[in-house]
Amino acid sequence: MKAIVFSEDGEIASQMVNYLKGKAEVIASTLTEEKEKCIRAGAEKLYLLSGIAEPENISEAISEIKNATGADYIFIGSTANGRDIAGILSAKEDMKPISEITSFEINDGKATVTRFLYGGKAVSTEETSATLYVYAPGISESARAESDTPTETIQLKEPSVKPESEEPKTSGGVDLEKAKIIVSVGRGLGSKEGLGIAEELAKKVNGEIAGSRPVCLDYHWLSEDRQVGLSGKKVKPKVYIALGISGQIQHIAGIRGAKTVIAINKDKSAPIFEECDYGIVGDLFQIVPKLISAL
Amino acid sequence: MQYIDGGSVGYNIAVLIKVIPDLEQIKAASGTGQIQIEKVPLRLDILSEHAIEAAVQLKEKYGGKVTGFIFGNNESIPLMKKAYAMGVDEGLVITGYKENNPTLTASVISEKLKSLQFDIIVLGNQSADTYTGLLPGMIASKINARLIGNVLSIEIEGKEVKARKSLEKKIEVVKAQMPVVISVTQETNQPRLPPVMQIMAAGRKTIQSEEYKGQTPSYTLTKSRVAPKSERKKQIFEKPEDGIQAVVRVIKEEAR
Amino acid sequence: MQLFSALLIAGLAISAASFIYTLYSIFWNAVKIPEKPYRIKASIGRRAYITIRNVLLQGKLFKERSGGIMHALMFWGFIAFGAYSATFFARGIDPSFQLIPPGEIKNVIFLTVDVFALVVLIDVFYAFLRRWVIKIPRYQGYNGFEAAFILFLIATLMITYYALGILRIDGVSRNIPGAIMESIPSSYTPVTVFFAGLFPKATGPLSVDLYWTLYTIHALDFLIFLVYIPRSKHLHLVAAPLNVILSKDRQPAQLSTIDFDHETRFGATDIRDFSWKDYLDFYSCTECGRCTFNCPAYLTGKTLSPRDIIWDLREVVLAEGPELRSKGMDHKDQILKPVIGDTISETDLWSCTTCMACVEQCPVMIDHVDKIVNMRRSLVLNQGKAPKGTLETYNNMEMYGSPWVADPSTRGDWAKDLGVNILSESGNDDFEILYWVGCVSSYDRRNQEIAKSVVKILQKAGIKFAILGSEEKCTGDPAKRTGNEYLAENLARVNIDTLNKHKVHRVITGCPHCFNSLKNDYSEMGFKAEVIHHTEFINQLISSGKISIAATQNDKEEKFTYHDSCYLGRYNKIYEPPREIIGHVSDNYEEMSMNKSKGLCCGAGGGRLWMDETVGTKISHKRIGMASDINASTVVTACPYCMIMLDDARRVTGLEDKMKLSDISEFVASRLTD
Ligand SMILES: Cc1cc2nc3c(=O)[nH]c(=O)nc-3n(C[C@H](O)[C@H](O)[C@H](O)COP(=O)(O)OP(=O)(O)OC[C@H]3O[C@@H](n4cnc5c(N)ncnc54)[C@H](O)[C@@H]3O)c2cc1C
Ligand code: SF4
Ligand code: SF4
Predict the structure, then answer these.
(1) Is the ipTM of this complex over 0.90?
(2) Number of domains in chain A
């Protein structure tokens, strides 16, 4: 099998290359600006698309690559534009698509994929004859090959959707809803000084810091936009670490979407222990430092 | 810009609406962990509600008419009422939906759209149940319209649409000529609570429906659908040392 | 003298005309503008009772003692003084006229006048002190000029009465035609006699001039008063008695109904969307501020002031009414402006906890809450506007039958291991009483303890009961009180069907909000069953000996207090049962500073439990502060909403080690004896 991977994010493109290597002959493509991130991903060849890029003309370019290489599979990284590109390609090339795959195996031309359904409530394992796959970023790491991949540049056509200007994504506020790991603190911290240890943990695990309502709204240890719960943010990180949070219903309402909830609380009967995956009973000031060093 | 309903000038807007099972009420069978959706009540996909809101806002601002399309089943028909209540003028439910077949959905809807000459087609960028996110591109391509995906805001001038697209790292302002397919995100707007007069008017309005009878070649076979985890594991460690070990493992696994 | 009578007649005619015309125009507004109906039943007995109690005996005024006594004395004084004024004008017009035939009765009447005139005078002085010297907060900033002017008129009326009386004692007016009270023996006018003793005897022609001068001042004063009344807050002299007589059958709980099949304008957007009774409410307001100064929102620094709501609506009516009258009803749509926005802010409407403290306090029985909810309805039902948290609750109530996102199939899970008949699973309709759990106690872990305690008590008492489990849905209270009558009605209908399906005749519930809905709102929709709140039920179980409780060892060190839930107390007048229950166990009990009918809300009612409270202090913090002020070690409540709010306040204000919080059911369940 021969597969083209594309993502306008070079890092995602190289993840896909690494993931598919060994399963297929991989031809990579990304935007020219992202060349550096992809050049040593280990693909057979790297196509660089240059010019004003919109889903419409990118998909045309990928069609060109397909024709040129005779690839039979296409993998597109799941980004806002990536999904649009996949949609257009699927219609244009009449390829059967499947979206947001979290794993891909192929045997005798029959592919087996897994993907999440129903807001993460189900893992679906599917056998498919699809040839166009949208890849969920993060299921694999990227590798670094010894040498540069040979490249070829494709000039993108003028798109009919015309970009006018760009704005930076306002990053002023915290984006708790998008955080992968959240370290959340409650009144168990005792005082604002206690925050230090939580922040240290957050830094260690590369997470965002958040808090219960009293901590954010009543005591202002944290800014209000970091409040998690019914009247705060509804978050869906992979890991939610609750330090000194008792777990009242108003708080829990904000963490239903969390994949794994870890709680540290000194009160064995705290309701948070009914709402967590892993709970440690004990003083957070003793446990968290140990946790940090164990990490 | 077209003449709509014998006189008033405005845009002919379509909104594509998905009916899905309520995700909160989906459960795994105890024991097997197989996901059960049979008895789960249906609702409009939240992203479809955002799409309806966007379409109705365009109508309110620039004039025109909004037609809603649901590709679903017989059970989906009554849910068009909510769309009516939110301001959709006319609705068609096509029955015969098959799960896991975006190609079919795209072609059934595109056929309809082609015959009706829309200026603007609005839909959600991804659906909450299956996350496909492919329909905007597929439909735009099939009906030969411009695609502006993941928009935050929309403005219209004559035949030109200007919109702010939300990408991962930036916001891009783009312009395109109608017809356009626009996909919206959760950040685009806040779907309205329909006023009661409209809820009641919606109740009296007829909903057209027709059955899709074509062949539906399926290319995907679902082998299993299980809950990734039934509910919270509730593993409580009273000896911190054990707990730390377990937690470190989990964090390392997840933080990859 | 002829001339004088003529002038008097003319003056009287002019002020009476002005009085009547102003009243006419004001009541024209009330008859012609409003389009909403007002439900009223005859209930003659009740009306007679409240009229005697709240008009004649000034009953509601005594909720604030000093102000109440002041006003009541003024009121009674005025009634008494009416005899003097009537005689004064009657004889001024026809000097030979005898309004009351001379005799003992007349003497006693005028003795009353003589005494009450002094009382009124002292009252005026006291009123002056309250407003400008003691500076009672609730008067500050409100129509000081008007108050001063009125007090001046009243004082002048009384002073000239005594001055004329002194001249009478001195014999100056004996031969003047039309002079009054000449036949009253001086022993019946002791106050006048006393005053006369303070002045040298008046004689000579100058004293006659003085008589006429005083006479003129007295007459003019009265006429000005007559003209002024309907144009000022003293319109309440006319409107308030009517308002009391025509008040709702069931004062607090009732909200006006909506006829969804026929109405097209929901709730109150502009002044046409009220009822004539609402107009009477506006006209009755005396701006006394009792409502506002008992309002939990106002007391914690929010801008909501129920007095301003009423008064601002009145101003709009008085401004737009005349315009409508001159231009004609066809111009309604141009003239009437929405009252929400410029006049009454949306923020203020959403700040209300529907606690009824304002309604409870208002001496003239104005219903603020119905108006506030009606304006909320306008926002919610016509425009789909509500705070974000509230919109979410609507969604949840519709999808999950609970204001929270909660899987309805797990509603009865808390009772799974308790041997409870869960109807959604057992289908076994063999029970005497249905325990209606409510959303909070079904899903909130802290409040599940309440449900478990109720179960324990019912089982101990050997009562055959059942719960609905997943068939129970939110009663709709959070929707109803935030103005989403449509959703509330739908939920009510589903619940009533369920209750009827299981042939429920008796319901006990632990949630005052559910209690009020089931008992008062559902009964209006045709649900007929006896609905009992667990406080009353448990109290009955104790007094009938079905269960008994005893103090625990720790109780000796405890100091108890009880926090009144608005929906139990003011809405349903249940104040004593919980206090009696606590009394079985401990004498160390003290009331917080605002209690019973004056109890301060916890801040959760009216849908506020699901909204942010960011302005001023939190109501719950103020309330818990009151418990802390009396050093209570256990605060007993009887409402899951209060439990959530006060528990949060208790933690956040750092009282969790010093103060416990217990629902009355938990209080009892943990003290049951065999
Ligand atoms: C209308 C309303 C809306 C609300 N909305 C929200 C909301 O959006 N988000 C929210 O979070 N809350 C909300 N709340 C507040 C909620 O009810 C709780 O009060 C709050 O979540 C409790 O915060 P907490 O867990 O930090 O504090 P607490 O409940 O006081 O818990 C502190 C915990 O820390 C533990 N602890 C103490 N010291 C230590 C230590 N050294 N080591 C380990 N553990 C320790 C204690 O055992 C305790 O369990 C709302 C409340 C209301 C009434
Ligand atoms: S009901 Fe309570 S909160 Fe609302 S205005 Fe009256 S006193 Fe204030
Ligand atoms: S509404 Fe009632 S309590 Fe409030 S100011 Fe007016 S008269 Fe006084």
Answers:
(1) no
(2) 2
